[in-house]
Specification:
Elements (H helix, E strand, L loop, with lengths): L2 H10 L11 E12 L2 E9 L10 E2 L2 E3 L7 H13 L6 E6 L3 E3 L3 E10 L12 E8 H6 L3 E7 L23 E10 L2 E4 H14 L1
Parallel strand pairs: 1-7
Antiparallel strand pairs: 1-2, 1-4, 2-3, 2-8, 5-7, 6-7, 9-10, 10-11
Length: 204
């Protein structure tokens, strides 16, 4: 292969996260509503009929479909479908930092303001209930953070003879932080709590 050919191919390459083509893409919305005592964050409790994470607390969201113009529109679409509201009820939609999940997901979070919240009619197929928490609660209270370590377990036929150290190779352990908020008996944790904590860091 000639140098010119190599350079031409490199010039045409648009960098992405290596291996991201195998990742599932999700978009979520951190919804804000106005109440008499100020701004609240709205949460969903996932329907107990759902196969994945039934009964857990989350934000509206889901997988980015090929028909979605972009991740932002996917987050808006999912919010409309799950909360039973109109597109006009969602304004001031802004992106937060996207997340690369260790479980093979790219997550694109957004925050947006929901007007006429009294019109919300949750989709019972996906949402068991909704509730809100004053934004001031999260501003004034840091999350509790716990650590989880993942252990490396090579498959049975792993070629230890090809690496320095062989079976005694010193694998790096991978850890993640799990965030927890507890409000009036409701536990907000995992990715939802991590997105929420990031949002609070921005507005503080």
């Amino acid at each position: 292969m000639e140098l010119e050919s190599v350079v031409a191919k490199l010039k045409r390459h648009a960098p992405v996260i290596l291996g991201s083509e195998k990742f599932a893409k999700y978009a979520v919305m951190l919804p804000l509503i106005e109440k008499e005592d100020g701004i609240h964050v709205l949460f969903e409790v996932r329907s107990l009929e759902l196969r994945r994470q039934p009964g857990e607390i989350c934000f509206p969201g889901g997988k980015v479909d090929p028909e979605d113009k972009d991740e932002k529109e996917a987050a808006i679409r999912e919010t409309i479908e799950e909360l039973g509201i109109n597109r006009e009820n969602i304004t001031e939609v802004y992106p937060l930092d996207f997340m690369v999940s260790p479980f093979g997901m790219l997550v694109y979070p957004y925050t947006g303001f929901i007007s006429h919240s009294e019109c919300i009619q949750p989709n019972p197929a996906e949402v068991g209930e909704i509730f809100t928490v004053p934004l001031s609660f999260f501003i004034n209270k840091d999350p509790e953070i716990y650590h989880i370590e993942f252990k490396a377990e090579p498959e049975e036929n792993f070629p230890f003879d090809l690496i320095v150290g062989g079976e005694n190779y010193n694998w790096r352990t991978r850890g993640i932080e799990e965030y927890f908020y507890v409000y009036e008996g409701k536990t907000i944790w995992g990715m939802t709590a991590r997105i929420l904590a990031h949002f609070i860091e921005i507005i503080r």
